[in-house]
Amino acid sequence: MNHNVQHRAPLRTLTLGLSLTLAVACSRKDQTARETQSAAGSTGAPTTGSAPADLAAATPDNPLRPEAPSRVIPLQNGPGSAPDGAPRLDTLKLPPGFAIEMYAPDVPNARSLARGSKGVVFVSNRKEDKVYALVDADGDYKLDKVVVVAKGLDTPNGIAYKDGTLYIAEIQRLLKIERIDEKLENAPAPVLVSDKLPDEKHHGWRYMRFGPDGWLYMPIGAPCNNCLREEPIFSTIARMRADGSGLEVFASGVRNSVGFDWHPESKELWFTENGRDELGNELPPDELDRAPKAGLHFGFPHCHAGAIIDPEFGEGKKCSDYEPPVQNLGPHVAALGMRFYTGKMFPAAYKNQILIAEHGSWNREPKLGYRITKVTLEGNKATSYEPFITGWLDEKSDEVWGRPVDIEQLDDGSLLISDDHKGLVYRVTYRG
Asked: For the whole model, what pTM was predicted?
């Protein structure tokens, strides 16, 4: 199979063109080349000194070497079904001065959030087939109505808004509705922009946003838990023009990102990444990564979290050859949507800092995540990683009643948070 991958100077991106179409057409074939090792100590480059006992002691040059997955019993506990009854807002804990309230109480499977024209926020689905518009017609930051603007879609998790057009990503297709602001009450059927996206359903739900450069960025997740595919489009963050042309790889070695944002000053891309499964409760952590330029590789599937050699695909690899995370997050927390806070409502300590929606673990005991966390930066380095909102998970009973997915900032500096487990959208304010 001829991919004809070319480098595009000076960005060093991998332009896919026709070769991508051919690769996707062949993608149903199993092209996974596994290099499973029988013992953890047999992978990767030689260690320097004694092997580290845990991730805290590991370094890129002396990485942790977990045992192969065949020796690890994968957990399959799942978060369970959302309990009946009203949301338990009184159980949510925030820093002093902050408050959380219901913004939209009935948005089934609410997933990605995208700001439209003034007073409108669009909400996508993953397990349902609709895209909604939340309308605040009078600008008082109270919901006036919810409008279905598209339905009958295939996993429409990815949405983006630009210049009056709403873009919707299904698994294999990119669609759009032009002049959506004028047609909220009677929106026409979306029209096709591109049908050249891979059709694998594993990590096939899309997330997308327009970057400061005007390109539409969209991760293409690994079609597996842990594998090495021949097609260069998988395990990447890709981008394309708004008309669907010019699809190219921006960042490689990214297992599954479902959230990213650009630094408000440097305009560099930062993103969350979900780590692989089947290495136990504590490994690997999810990641917060930074891509200051195109063409970088972030390690998957060879190295995880900057210092963990993969027991299946790590032979002969060095973690120091790949981009390290800015911050390792909790293991299996399912870090999804993230935003740099740029508003004026919150205290100055939150300015240009990162808030992350941790959807919560599905295969860890005890459960972890189900919260909003804050990463504080000094320049490009993380100085702290701590909870911002907790309470969707009862740590004593291990019961879950909500799962945050995405974060969006409103004009007044307040934040909206979607919850696909409970099917609603919250609003967070600061009252001093």
From this structure: 0.90
